[in-house]
Amino acid sequence: MVKLNKAALKVVDELSSRLSEVKAVELNIAGAKVIDCGVNAEGSFEAGIYVSRICLAGLANVSLSTVDYPDFALPQVDVSTDYPVESCMLSQYAGWKISVGNYTAMGSGPARALARKPKKLYEEVGFHEEASEAVLALEASKLPSDDAVKLIAQTCSISPSNLTLVVFSTSSMTGAAQISARVIETAIHKLHSLGLPLKVVKSGVGSCPVAPLHPDPSVMMGRSNDMLLLTGKVFLTVEYGDLEKLRSYVEKAPSSSSKQYGKPFYEIYKEAGHDFYKIDPNL
């Protein structure tokens, strides 16, 4: 069985050796190692690739390319993995909402497996991990508070000194790139919400353009998710015997099957009270 945190920490070591090159800064908060990849630090697309690989527990290839449209071109993130459930759902999925005092963040990465956030997902897959070191990625507009660090470490049953947090704003280059890198995860999540068992998914290849930056994190959240919903492309290999049932899943999988398709995601986000977790997962 793969060790999610151990694999991701190898990528953390790569990132730590190139901090100045990728415009990131390393800090110590409440004893934890915190790498600012796009909050106070500038961040970069290259930092976004590292963060994406960390979120995917080091079990996926992530790279940058470009995609051409009739009148313009956009940067694009390309992702492939032969461990789609482990990398995307058990690690990358932003399934841990951190809320301590006035600090909030969306948590993703392999530390979720220690905290079992959400517990139901790990029980369904039958996955359990124990580790003395952990890494979590935080999508937030501020660096974590001491209390947030202590809560994360305590929930993971580790010491803050063995915790690494990689932090970035949604409106940074880093944040934009890592959202586009969620294209396979988004597809699996949608199929799973329709009833497809996770264990049948064997590999995934996907690509998604990176949204043009906007200084408002909420607007940027909308733009980045519009990219996933409208332009993301995914190919999955599955092992599933009922082809007619599989066809029904595939027909309902695209975003265009939703009644909200075509409505800017920022508007949907506002209607949900700026709470990402209140948005209909079927979208």
Alpha-carbon Rg, integer: 18 Å
Mean pLDDT: 95
Going by helix content, strand content and strand pairing, the class is: alpha+beta
Query: If strands are numbered along the chain, what order do they take across the biggest sheet?
Result: 1-2-8-7-6-5
Query: Percentage of helical residues?
Result: 25-40%
- Helix count, per DSSP? 11
**Overall spatial form:** globular
Percent of residues in beta strands: 15-25%
Largest sheet entry = 6 strands, mixed
Distance between the termini: 32 Å
Q: Care to count the β-strands?
A: 10
Helices and strands in order, then pairings?
Blueprint: H1 4-16, E1 25-29, E2 32-36, H2 45-55, E3 61-68, E4 73-81, H3 84-92, E5 96-100, E6 103-108, H4 111-115, H5 119-125, E7 134-139, H6 146-155, E8 163-168, H7 173-180, H8 183-194, E9 201-209, H9 217-231, E10 233-238, H10 243-252, H11 265-271
Parallel strand pairs: 2-8, 7-8
Antiparallel strand pairs: 1-2, 3-4, 4-9, 5-6, 6-7, 9-10
Helix pairs in contact: 1-2, 2-7, 3-8, 9-11
Write a structural description.
With 283 residues, the protein is α+β, with helices and mostly antiparallel strands. It is built from 11 helices and 10 strands. The longest helix is centred in the C-terminal third of the chain and has 15 residues, at 217-231. The radius of gyration is 18 Å and the shape is globular.
